[in-house]
Amino acid sequence: MLEAFLPTDVKTRVSLVHLSLLIRSSSYLFSVDLLDDSSQDNGVQTNQYSSIAPAASPVAQEDPFTTYFEEKVPIPENVNQIFSFRKLWAFTGPGFLMSIAYLDPGNIESDLQSGAVAGFKLLWVLLGSTIIGLLLQRLAARLGVVTGMHLAEVCNRQYPTVPRVILWLMIELAIIGSDMQEVIGCAIALNLLSVGRIPLWGGVLITITDTFVFLFLDKYGLRKLEAFFGFLITVMAVSFGYEYVLVNPNQGGVLKGMFVPYCAGCGSQQLEQAVGIVGAVIMPHNIYLHSALVKSREVDRKNKKDVKEANKYFFIESAIALFISFLINVFVVAVFAQAFYNKTNMDVVSILLKYLVSDYPHTDLFPLNNDTLQVDIYKGGIVLGCFFGPAALYIWAIGILAAGQSSTMTGTYSGQFVMEGFLNLRWSRFARVLLTRSIAITPTLLVAIFQDVRHLTGMNDFLNVLQSMQLPFALIPILTFTSLTSIMNDFANGLVWKISGGIVILMVCAINMYFVVVYVTSLNSVLYYVLAGFISVAYLCFILYLVWHCLIALGVSCLDFGTCVSLLSLGGHIPSSF
Fold it and tell me: Does the residue 344 lie in any domain?
């Protein structure tokens, strides 16, 4: 029964005698590729710093970088300083596109709910999640730089057919869930800006249309596209920064909440919100995205010094980008913590009745009771407008529109990279964009047509759970492949990174699984419990399969039932298909 789940390739630098012995002793492995320091197979170069050979396919050499990589950014030569701003500028771009996933409407909603529910007390969770995200993005960037292939392509070559297809489906689910949040976030922003004149479904159609237009900006140059994303991040920073200055939160409370890892007086609601922050910040498809984006720079992977330098500058750029995204998230948390923590529905209704006519269209959003105020992206804008004037509402909507539009575009790139990598697609550019957009947008449009703009919080919770469940399918493979010497050579994870990476991934997955369990138990339905039980069995079996391979990559060779032990005695390290 294990044959269907065993790898299809073995790529390891051993002698011809050792290789023939390996073939005879491992009849369930289907093919062996000899790797040479300067070989080039099917358009993908393999050398001492990139020992993955692509799947044998004559079609693969037609266009080695067909999406986003119509051009590659050159890196300045003959810069001998330890640190060069010119080189940092050349490497700047992929990290900022990656950081947009930390600023999508799902994250913004998690931020505002955190502030309204727990005040400043959970800012340290946001800081910790961002740091963990940076460490995981470092692994993704290193995989792309060292191998010249992104995570989906490596999965395609290293996993056999059945696990590969399952992985693709799981990541597609995560992308669809993220896309729904992003597109609906744009639609809500347009609804707020038009004072309700543009319905939710109309906003979805507008977002789909302008996303197609913006995605072709890279035809005018990759740097121009990256500059456009930088402009959208600036719009978010200015919009949410304006709200921060307007509300003027307690700076001492902000700093205490950020650096003191404690939540005094917190209960289950605050705990669930903390778990929600982790789930919103660390997104599975973003690992696949970042490993692909770094391929847009000209890096000589035959030169160990150049690879090391690229890893350094990409890490610095990612740290700067995530620091900026963290500040923007802090703006949102602090605004709602200062203005709306411990506020009730009656507090908002009293403001509406005091300053506005009694038949104001938003009065029905807030029940006439003293329950704690519940906010989302839509209600958050309304509440800001009630307390701080119409300008606060419109500037909030502009920030949400920028967040939704930018994350929708990067989500589209994620979909293309994942589909091309796992399925080895070689379609025309327009066909790829149309297919990947249709898969993600169709359910979003259906939700927009049949769901009211004011009642989307429940769906947002479900989408967060959906993405949380897919997280292991990005984190486990990235740790597995970056730990293999046969893939990463001198840049494989060391013992410290293997242990710390394993602990971090275990912790993140456990936190997200807790979030899933809490959500399922809140449904209060026996049918849902039974269905969740069946799904959990299949889900955990596949997770165990991935963990099994990951542990082998981390050096626990005894789990390979003797195969890896014999391979280690032959070749000195675990092969790239283990």
Answer: yes
